[in-house]
Give the backbone structure.
Amino acid sequence: MYLFALLGNELTKLLHLPISGSIVGLFLVLALLHLKILKLSYVELGASFLMSEMLLFFIPSAVAIIQYKDEILQHGSQFLIVILLSTITVMIVTGLVAQYSIRRLANKKGEIER
Amino acid sequence: MIAFICILLTVLVYYLSKMLYKKVQRAFLSPLLVAPCILSLMLVGFHIDYSDYDSGGRWLSNLLQPAVVGFAIPLYKYHQVMKKYAKIIAISMTAGVTIALISSGIFSHVVHLENNYLLSLLPRSITTPIAMAVSVDIGGMPTMTAIFVIVTGISGLILGPMVIRYLHIKEKLARGLLLGMGAHGAGTSKALEFGSEEGAAASLAMVLAAIFTLIFAPILTPLILM
C-alpha cells in the first residue's frame, strides 16, 4: 500500500495532476485488481490494518492545533459553530437524498415486477 | 531521537485512548479527541516544540496516504453494488459536496468570520491531503484547513450516528454515504463499525467527495464570497 501511495505521488508530480497521490494510488490498485494483475489476498490484510488504525494517522495533525493558540482562542467558538452546523447539515442532506432515491428506485422496481 | 520518542509516545497514547473508548463506548471519548488532548498537554508540560514533535509525527501522518489507497479494497469488493446504485451515489454526492461548500460559507458569514478563515473552512469535509490542496487552490491557509478537517472528523464521529438514529436512516448505502461525505476518513472508520457494506459506501463517498470538491470548490468559491 505504501508502495502504491509513493507511486501515486510520483505519478502526480510527473503528470502535474491537480489531485493527490493517494487518490491516484487508489485508482491504480483498483485497476490492477480488476485486471487481475494484483491478487486481493496480497493486499487485503495490510490495507485493512491501515484502515482500522486510520485515526492514529490523524493524531499528529490534530496536535498541530497548539501552534494556533491565538487564532483558536480568538475565533474557536465561531469555528466550532460553523463546523458543527455545517457537518450536521451535510450529513442530513446526504443521508436523506440517498435514502429517498434508494426508496424511489425500490418502488419503481416493485411496479415493474407487478 | 526525539522523533522516535514522539512516534512511540503517540502510538502508546493512541492505544490507551482506544482501550478507554472500547470500555466506555462514548463518542465524545473518541481516540481522535482524547489522544491529541493528552499529547498537547504533554508537549506543553515538557516544553517540547511542535516542530520537534512533528519530526516524528510526520511519519505517522504520512501513513494516511497508504491508508487512503487501502480503500481501493472495499471499493473493489463491492463494485457490483456500486454500479447498480451509481446514479443514486452520484446524486447524493453532488448534493453533499455542494451543501458542504455552501453551508460552510453561509455559516461563516453568519458568525462574521473573515474571508481568510472562511476559505480555509470550505474544504473541511474531505480527506486531509486533498483538503489542504484545495485550500491552497482557493486561497485559504492549508494548516488551518488541516485542523478544521480534524475537527470535522471528530464532529462527524459524534453527529453521524445521531443523524442516523434520529432520521431513521436504515439503508446501509445511505448510512455509509452520509458518514463518508460528512466526515471523510474518520466517518469511514465509523462506518466500518456499522458493517463492511457501510464501510465500502463510506470509502466511496470519501473518495468522490474529494474529487467533486476539487472540481466544485474553485467554481463555487467566488459565489460564496459574494
User: Anything to note?
Assistant: The longest helix of chain B spans residues 196-225. The radius of gyration of chain B is 18 Å. The mean pLDDT of chain B is 83. Chain B touches chain A through 105 residues (CB under 8 Å).
